[in-house]
Amino acid sequence: MKSYGLTLVELLVTLVLFALIAATLAATFAGGLQVWERFQTSGTREPWLQVAFDQFRRDLHGARRFQPIPFQGAYDALSFPALVSTAAETGDYQELGRVGYFWDGARRRLCRSHDPYRRLAHAGLKDTCEAVISDITRLHLSYYAWDPAEETYDWSSSWSAAEPPLAVKLELSYNEPSSRRPVTQSLIVQVPLAMGGRPQSP
């Protein structure tokens, strides 16, 4: 009579195979958890950076021409005329004013300010800070336009011309949360208001 049971060797081989499969699945699962945790840790800043970049882009795209408020820029501050929201008894409305960005090095944050024109006589650019993003180790602003001295387009760290630059570059540096390594993210925004291209020869 034929026996259909498993021998001891077959049983041991089966157990070893199951153990190998279980170990492989456990290692894969643990590795996946580590990747997920690393992604969660290192990626927490990215949405905030995106929000900051989107705000900066919207404001520059909303710049207006208004001679009493010049377009002024330095490596750590920028201001320009734009529509700003103002609370009133009848609700929120918009009026012409100054929008600005500046670096608060003591608190390591990028600040935004917005004041209506009627208050500018008593309001400095850095009097109020609406924190756009915090835990920033460095801010650098650059301005792209035609450089008549070099006869080429170039970036500069300041701007005081009557016309706005063709584009503004915002660079933010921070320490990556997981590794503490320095990381720099940059955004270049074209200024639709700018007319300035290369001057035409007379």
Instruction: Bin the helical content.
Output: 25-40%
Shape: elongated
| Total beta-strand segments | 9
Specify Rg, calculated over alpha carbons.
28 Å
SSE pattern: HHEEEEEEEEE
Query: Beta-sheet strand percentage?
Result: 35-45%
Q: Main sheet?
A: 5 strands, antiparallel
Structural class of the helices, strands and pairings?
alpha+beta
Instruction: For the largest sheet, list the strands in their spatial order.
Output: 1-2-3-4-5
N→C terminal distance: 112 Å
What's the helix and strand layout?
Blueprint: H1 8-42, H2 45-61, E1 72-73, E2 77-88, E3 91-104, E4 109-116, E5 130-134, E6 138-147, E7 152-156, E8 167-175, E9 182-190
Antiparallel strand pairs: 1-2, 2-3, 3-4, 4-5, 6-7, 6-8, 8-9
Characterise this structure.
There is one protein chain. The protein has 2 domains: 11-42; 45-190, no CATH class. It is built from 2 helices and 9 strands, in the order H-H-E-E-E-E-E-E-E-E-E. 26% of the residues lie in helices and 37% in strands. The longest helix is centred in the N-terminal third of the chain and has 35 residues, at 8-42. A 5-stranded antiparallel sheet has the order 1-2-3-4-5, with helices on one face. With 202 residues, it is of the alpha+beta class. The radius of gyration is 28 Å and the shape is elongated.
Q: What is the structure about, briefly put?
A:
By secondary structure, this protein is of the alpha+beta class.
Summary tags:
single chain, 202 residues, alpha+beta, 2 domains, five-stranded antiparallel β-sheet, four-stranded antiparallel β-sheet, 2 helices
